[in-house]
Specification:
Distance between the termini: 17 Å
Radius of gyration: 18 Å
CATH architecture: Alpha-Beta Barrel
Domain Luciferase-like: 13-99, 118-244
Largest sheet: 8 strands, parallel, barrel
Shape: globular
Number of helices: 10
Oligomer: single chain
Organism: Thermomicrobium roseum (strain ATCC 27502 / DSM 5159 / P-2)
Structural class: alpha/beta
Pfam families: Bac_luciferase
CATH topology: TIM Barrel
Protein name: Putative oxidoreductase
Number of domains: 1
Keywords: Oxidoreductase
CATH class: Alpha Beta
Strand order of the largest sheet: 1-2-3-4-5-6-7-9
Order of helices and strands: EHEHEHEHEHEHEHHEHEHEE
CATH superfamily: Luciferase-like domain
Strand content: 15-25%
């Protein structure tokens, strides 16, 4: 069974980033991730997480190469003094033509410049094969456990073509805990379904976006709900969806999804 990570949007409060990262390290998560967005600097959020942690790996998922050039990424990583031994540097194609070549050249440039794990975001077969050829790891997103296996086959084809080992496989799995978070999950799913690339991705799988996410009412239901992904991935990243991005909401999900937690005889989560 694979390891477990935890992820937030970089646009949430720095206090939430710091509190969640510290709790994730204490509870045994292998990685802590943030989404880089136009309104949230992923690398700055990782710097906030790095300041309160010392062991947990730190991932950004992902820096779009139409907005972040490799040169700018390298400059920013160095300026923020991010710990390279813990950094999982995720990149994506961004929008517009030339996606494959943009990711290929970007990944190779970053691997040459920074001694960290370079992670390529991949949805379709061509990008998955490219990730197998050039990346240290691949980040999947919004996909079913069955499609993890299909995507892994594509990644493996690229790795074999380049005579490289299979890259580590991460996946974001959106997780909502409690009924108050469900409308936010529904909004997030509907938003992604409007993006052409993701529309094609969901059509390829034959499922709506919500079929790739987890929504549970009680903490004790999470382990079973996540198990189908964890049996086919190297690492499952619990991408938190909460009602209001408050620290108490996020910490409740951090605690509920903590690695190794199970329901005790008294109905409480225990290690």
């Amino acid at each position: 069974m694979g390891a477990r990570g935890f992820g937030l949007a970089a646009a949430v409060s720095p206090d939430v980033i710091r509190g969640a990262a510290s709790a994730c390290e204490a509870l045994g998560y292998r990685t802590f991730w943030v989404n880089d967005t136009p309104d949230g600097d992923g690398l700055a959020a990782l710097a906030a997480a790095a300041a309160v942690t010392s062991r947990i790996a730190l991932g950004v998922g992902v820096l779009p190469l139409t907005r972040w050039t490799p040169e700018r990424i390298v400059e920013r990583v160095r300026a923020l003094d991010l710990p390279l031994d813990r950094l999982r540097l995720g990149i994506g194609s961004g929008t517009g033509p030339g996606a494959l070549e943009r990711v290929r050249s970007g990944a190779l440039a970053l691997r040459a410049a920074l001694a960290c794990e370079v992670v390529v975001a991949a949805l379709g077969p061509r990008m998955c094969r490219l990730a197998g050829e050039v990346a240290d790891a691949v980040l999947f997103n919004w996909l079913t456990p069955d499609h993890v296996q299909r995507s892994t086959q594509w990644v493996a084809e690229g790795a074999r073509r380049a005579d490289r080992p299979l890259p580590r496989r991460y996946a974001y799995v959106r997780v909502a805990l409690g009924s108050a978070a469900v409308p936010r999950l529904q909004e997030e799913a509907a938003r992604y379904e409007r993006f052409p690339g993701y529309r094609e991705h969901f059509a390829r799988m034959g499922v709506p976006a919500l079929a790739t996410a987890v929504a549970v009412e009680r903490a004790e239901e999470l382990a079973a709900a996540l198990a189908p992904w964890e049996t086919v991935l190297d690492e499952t990243v619990v991408r938190a969806i909460t009602a209001g991005d408050r620290l108490d909401e996020v910490l409740a999900l951090v605690e509920a999804a903590a690695p190794g937690r199970q329901l005790g005889s008294g109905g409480q989560l225990t290690s």
